[in-house]
Amino acid sequence: MGLRFLEHILILTHDPDATRDWFVNCLGFRAGPHPDFGFPVHWLYIGEQDVIHIGQARHSQHQDQYLKAAGDKEGVDYSAAGAPGSGRIDHVCLNCEGMDEFIERLRANGVEFSERKAHGSNLYQLFMREPVNGIKIELNFAWQEAVRLGRVPGWTDQGVARPG
Q: What is the DSSP letter of 65?
């Protein structure tokens, strides 16, 4: 037994089209084909792999039954957005390249983001919220890109802090 990789996430939302559009327009996902489940969905791809599935929250009894997990209690809305600390997923992290293109795309789409050097690693991170559902998105880039773009002036070309 062993885990191999994360296959996909499913976002149930009040506005599937706007959610799809944000991920496509702001982050560069590609909308692509999906099976007919008997209820509307969008599948978003990185390359040839579908990684984000999007559906209408509480669309139909058929959808609720299809998505039901063992132990789900009758009448509980598991698709409702949970408050912080509720056990809902806090953020989705994507490993990326082409930081300058990402920053340009985010700014062109009016996306506010914060950025930082990751503590204890040689990663550079951008954080933002997807505005339709409030999902926090983390974009991780290799330190080489941050150095090349001058995002972390204290780093050397080996990705470590200069002696101070």
A: H
